[in-house]
Amino acid sequence: MDNKHAISVLNDLIETSKDGEKGFHECAEDVKNPQLKTLFSQRAQECAAAARELQDLVRGLGGDPETSSSVAGALHRRWVDLKSMVTGKDDEAILNECERGEDVALKAYKEAMSKELPPTARVVVEKQLQGVQRNHDQIKSLRNIARAS
Asked: What is the pLDDT of residue 79?
């Protein structure tokens, strides 16, 4: 197995996790509901922990782990900021953007699972994929509740 390929896949997921960390952190700052603020802060911490776990895997494979978020993630956050200025930062709008971010993360993790990875990396990526799916489903449910009220 080519470690360079696995390192590249894992580094992409590190960027995705860093994007999630920053995105959830910004959502926590903007949201008014204290329960959502707590939830988003917890999700930001979970994304940071996921990134660290992936960075350890990359080091274990002899690579240099990614340490920053992606350009696409930064662009998405700027778009969210611009959109928020125009539409206002209501909780439903913030939940919509969180769900969009989780859609991107789900796609990245599913794509990574379709690649050849060492068994230890595959176990970690699968576990993190399940966490991303759980986050996505919870955010979507909260968004639906906010939309209905």
From this structure: 53
Q: Are 47 and 17 in contact (CB under 8 A)?
A: yes
Cβ count within 10 A of residue 145: 12
Length of the chain: 149
Task: Tell me the pLDDT of the chain averaged across its residues.
Answer: 86
Lowest-confidence segment of 6-10, 43-47, 103-107, 117-121 by average pLDDT: 103-107
CATH code of residue 86: 1.20.1260.10
Helices (H), 31-148: 34-60, 71-87, 91-113, 119-148
> What domain range is 72 assigned to?
3-148
- Total domains in the fold of the chain: 1
pTM score:
0.86
- The pair of three-digit structure tokens given for residue 7, joined into one six-digit string: 């390192």
Q: Both tokens of residue 13?
A: 């997921």
